[in-house]
Amino acid sequence: MFDTLQDRLASVFKGLRSKGRLTEADVDSSMREIRIALLEADVNLGVVKEFIAAVKERLVGLEISKALNPTQQIVKIVNEELIAILGGETRRIRFAKQPPTVIMLAGLQGAGKTTLAGKLGRWLRSQNYSPLLVAADLQRPNAVNQLQIVGERAGVHVFAPEPGNGVGDPIQVARDSITHARNKLYDVVIVDTAGRLGIDEELMRQAADIKAAVNPHETLFIVDAMIGQDAVNTAKAFDEGVGVDGVVLTKLDGDARGGAALSIARVLGKPIMFASNGEKLEDFDLFHPDRMASRILG
Ligand code: GDP
């Protein structure tokens, strides 16, 4: 992901470097090229406009012709503004003062929620937390089983409805899991909720009801970075319907253009907190806006 964008930006900067002295026209034409490169990478139009305006405003204040190395200064400004678009600082989990910290996962089916639950559990365990995964996705017959398999691989316990108790009520399961975590001294509860193929009212209502029942410290929206502008639209719908504290981008290892995913933090006004870039449980980390900007700028 981002390979084409990276190549395009690298060639803009290479062109600038080869010039020695830069004229205003040089700078204008490179800003145009950057704009096109971002749009072609599927970055949201509003975000592109805001980004270009911010960079241009800073360039006006810069005495390009007298600067020792003007291209380097432009690269620096582009880098800083890109970091700002991506959310600025790395946003870490806000742990509860009084455990357990409750983290709710929401998103469309296939976004990578169940896999993410395992990744997050494993990651928390590596930092000496004692997480509990909760199977509150009772919509798909196989979802509980799938979470149990992921939990086993991650070495994290799974709280699920007793077999034979019928379909079960996901809200009750979520509520019971908090009591269970308190009794058994788990300090982070990760609640996996049902996904649907598209946004629907029932899904939103159920997620909102689960949220009201467990009062999470973090509600994370899990989104497949491969789905383009739909990622931004779905994120908005979930934020309006359920309320989202942060975003997790999955499938960043894919070959889509990826720009839409990069627009989410700015469009939503919510941070991207984690990045998932592979099917293995260890393909997961905090999202660092500065590292992502460096990756894009090469
Ligand atoms: P859920 O329906 O949201 O719970 O999604 P799953 O966790 O079942 O994931 C759906 C598919 O995406 C599975 O085949 C996962 O192995 C795959 N997947 C999840 N995360 C990633 C990722 O970061 N990269 C890639 N390439 N595949 C992923």
Provide a descriptive summary of the structure in words:
- GTP binds at residues 107-114, 192-196, 250-253.
- Belongs to the GTP-binding SRP family. SRP54 subfamily.
- Its EC number is 3.6.5.4.
- Keywords: Cytoplasm, GTP-binding, Hydrolase, Nucleotide-binding, Ribonucleoprotein, RNA-binding, Signal recognition particle.
- The protein is an alpha/beta fold.
- The chain is 51% helix and 14% strand.
- The chain contains 11 helices and 8 strands.
- The chain has an 8-stranded mixed beta sheet, sandwiched between helices.
- α4 (70-85) packs across α11.
- It is elongated and about 70 Å long.
- The model has no long low-confidence stretch (mean pLDDT 90).
- Guanosine-5'-diphosphate (GDP) binds next to α5.
Main beta sheet strand tally, sense and closure: 8 strands, mixed
Helix content: 40-55%
- In total, the number of strands is 8
Q: Detail the poorly predicted runs.
A: none
**Class inferred from helices and paired strands:** alpha/beta
Terminal Cα span: 13 Å
List keywords for this structure.
11 helices, binds guanosine-5'-diphosphate, alpha/beta, 298 residues, eight-stranded mixed beta sheet, single chain
